Amino acid sequence: MSDSQWTEAAAVDEVPADDVVGMQVGGRDIALYNVDGQIYATDNVCTHGHARLCEGFLEGHEIECPLHQGKFDVRNGKPTCAPVTEAIRAYPVKIDAGRVFLSLG
Amino acid sequence: MNTETIAIVGAGQAGGWAAQTLRSEGFAGRVVLVGDEPHRPYERPPLSKAVLAGDAQADTTHLLKPEAFDALRIDWRPNVGATFIDRAAKQLHLTQGAHVSYDKLILCSGGRARRLDIPGADLPGVFSLRSIEDAAALGAALLAGKRLLVVGGGWIGLEVAATARKKGMEVTVVEAMGRLCERTVPPEISGYLLQLHIAHGVDVRLGTGIERLAQNARGGLTASFTDGREIECDAVLIGVGLVPNDELAREAGLACDGGVLVDSQCRSSDPDILAAGDVAAWQCEWAGRRMRLESWQNAQEQGIAAARAALGIAVNHQPLPWFWSDQYEVNLQIFGMPTPAHDVVVRGDRNSGSFVMFFLDSGKVVAALGPNAARDLRFARRLIERRTSVDAAQLADLQVPLAKL
């Protein structure tokens, strides 16, 4: 993968420890997560009720949607708790010089 | 080859989750899902909000996309009712003549809108709201500049009132009891809801029963009330509660009392028959009493629990009750079962758009609710579930993060 495919999203320290923030990256609504210092990125809109995951509740590797308490694994976007049945898209992340880059592909 | 059959009566949210869970738990036998509606399993909450307003299509409420549902290989019988359970033969008889032999049977037959026994209740322009078809019919009658009368100041009535106001209707809400949502919230929240609706221009009349509806000369309806007053309107929504569809269970001799009685493993008095969702009554530990929980959460969670129990998996269905309502710009959520006996601690300004009200019993938070406070309430839920002892002053102190308590 060439460097041109990476899109700069934020500074690492804009993603608070063990929490989630939402931001626009390359025209998309993205949620960034910080789990024990590791950054993950997914689409921000829940596949169930169209709520924004950045307003949800991060517990370990799971983000809980604020609307209906469905959960996704932030590492791969897979649904882990009802009512969500469809995965959200997870994006590859790289950190370079304190900046977060995403491969939006 | 596994030829075991699990039959589910009712293809609503509880039935849909039961069917789906049987498959996700690896059940490879036959799953028969009998539903008297033409639709695949769907969620009902949007029917009084986005779907009613025309902001969302009805199929957005479906639990699964059609291809995902079809992939579950469910023997789904739309537009079919269940007529009789032959418990001795373990057969479920259907309206279309056939019967299904079952090994386990899960009753998710839900409920129906309670009807009002008053003259004129069947007139054109008088609606109730339970199904997608009901929402389509009522939605077509929500016309700007016309007047809607809502009979019943409960959740359905208030959500429809809010949707109708957004559509530009004049709205009157009449409630026979002394306050709004009296069965489910403490007086403080009834007062909050009353102010919310008054502020949005709704004419709310408490302690007012309806006596009759009649067609009037100008093509609308005239409603007469117990206080002798009358109003003219163009449409009426009756939202006076739900009647559980437990007739099938009662006729089969299962223990019922305002719903099918089940234990926390969702088992009825017949161990091969389980029940879940709006039709099931069980001893809710959080409420400390036997009840039916008519909520989105319970339909989902009890449907899942019943399916697991039917497969012999140990379950203990005791989720912390969680309920929400969307009205105007307000999302009100309630965790637990607040009662007037609890001590109340308010965090934030009660007159602002967002605050949390905690309900304490012996220094522990047992319930919490609030408008537009989803994130704080998520922490409150943790306090309740962990039965944390808290200091009331800290709870009320906005400088103390709830995460730290």
Automatic annotation (TrEMBL), chain A:
Annotated InterPro entries: Rieske_2Fe-2S, Rieske_2Fe-2S_sf
Superkingdom, natural source: Bacteria
Iron listed as a keyword: yes
Family the entry assigns: Belongs to the bacterial ring-hydroxylating dioxygenase ferredoxin component family.
Cofactor: [2Fe-2S] cluster
Domain Rieske: 6-102
Protein's UniProt name: Naphthalene 1,2-dioxygenase system ferredoxin subunit
Entry keyword set: 2Fe-2S, Dioxygenase, Iron, Iron-sulfur, Metal-binding, Oxidoreductase
Molecular function terms, GO-annotated: 2 iron, 2 sulfur cluster binding; dioxygenase activity; metal ion binding
UniProt cross-references to SUPFAM superfamilies, sorted A to Z: ISP domain
Automatic annotation (TrEMBL), chain B:
Record EC number: 1.18.1.3
Pfam families: Pyr_redox_2, Reductase_C
Molecular-function GO term, any one: dioxygenase activity
Main enzyme class: oxidoreductase
Cellular component aspect of the GO annotation: cytoplasm
Protein's UniProt keywords contain Nucleotide-binding: no
Names of required cofactors: FAD
Keywords: Dioxygenase, FAD, Flavoprotein, Oxidoreductase
Entries under InterPro entries matching the protein: FAD-oxidoreductase/Apoptosis (IPR050446), FAD/NAD-bd_sf (IPR036188), FAD/NAD-binding_dom (IPR023753), FAD/NAD-linked_Rdtase_dimer_sf (IPR016156), Reductase_C (IPR028202)
Transmembrane segments: none
Domain of life of the organism encoding this protein: Bacteria
Domain FAD/NAD(P)-binding: 6-303
Domain Reductase C-terminal: 322-405
Entry protein name: 3-phenylpropionate/trans-cinnamate dioxygenase ferredoxin reductase subunit
Gene source species: Variovorax paradoxus
Lineage: Bacteria, Pseudomonadati, Pseudomonadota, Betaproteobacteria, Burkholderiales
